[in-house]
Amino acid sequence: MKYINAKSIIKSTDKQSSEKNDCSVRAFATALDVNYDAAHSYVKEIFKREDKKGCKHMESTGRAISIEGNTQEIDGVKFDLEVLPEEKVTNTYKLHGEVIARKKTVKSFLKDFSKGIYLVLVSGHVFTIKNGTMIDNVGEEWRPTRKIESVFELKLRNVLEQMEFGF
Questions:
Q1: What share of the chain is helix, strand, coil (3-state, %, to 5)?
Q2: Tell me: the pLDDT tens digits for 80-119?
Q3: Which of these, 27, 29, 62, 88, could form a disulfide with 84 (CB 3.0-4.6 Å)?
Q4: Which 3 state secondary structure label does DSSP give 28?
């Protein structure tokens, strides 16, 4: 499992050094390669995150954004936020002739989704998986069996538009 410490790729700012419970901010910053302060402002405005507190409305607000289909933007980076359907975040097993669906683990998700940019929500936490690499806080890399609650795929618009129009 490839892993990068989120702090190692986010430039430290005054706002970052005074924050805690900011996994949602770090996830957006690392997923989109934007600065921490821009990601912080976005999560505060769109997801109603309070300073120094976790993002309580991450899943419900993310689902609403996905349904609305409005392109989002942080620090000049445009992206679409899409919730992966339930069947993509579950594995099915046969048990005594009955088919059972269970939430994927982080390890299982990494194996199945080696391309793309994802915000992965687990119990009380969110982190980035980017092209098969997990980007998270120190110590989290040793928890590959956590069950995934939901996943947002980030699709970069700037890149897609440039490819479509031949820029």
A1: 35, 30, 30
A2: 999 999 999 999 888 899 999 999 999 999 999 999 999 9
A3: 88
A4: helix
Beta carbons of 137 and 4 less than 8 angstroms apart: no
| Cα end-to-end distance, the chain, whole Å | 35
- Side chain identity at residue 124, one-letter code: G
Q: Which helix (H) or strand (E) holds 59?
A: helix 58-68
Predicted local confidence at residue 166, as pLDDT = 47
Which range marks the domain in which residue 43 is found?
2-165
Are the CB atoms for 109 and 148 separated by under 8 Å? yes
Task: Please give the pLDDT value at position 167.
Answer: 44
Query: Which stretch of DSSP H or E encloses residue 92?
Result: strand 90-95
Cα gap 95→42, rounded to integer Å: 44
Question: Looking at the 3D structure of the chain, how many domains does it have?
Answer: 1
Amino acid letter for position 29: A
Q: What is the pLDDT of residue 159?
A: 62
pLDDT of amino acid 3: 85
- Reported as half-sphere exposure (CB side, CA atoms, 13 A), residue 95 has a value of 6
Q: What span, in angstroms and rounded, lies between the C-alpha atoms of 49 and 61?
A: 11
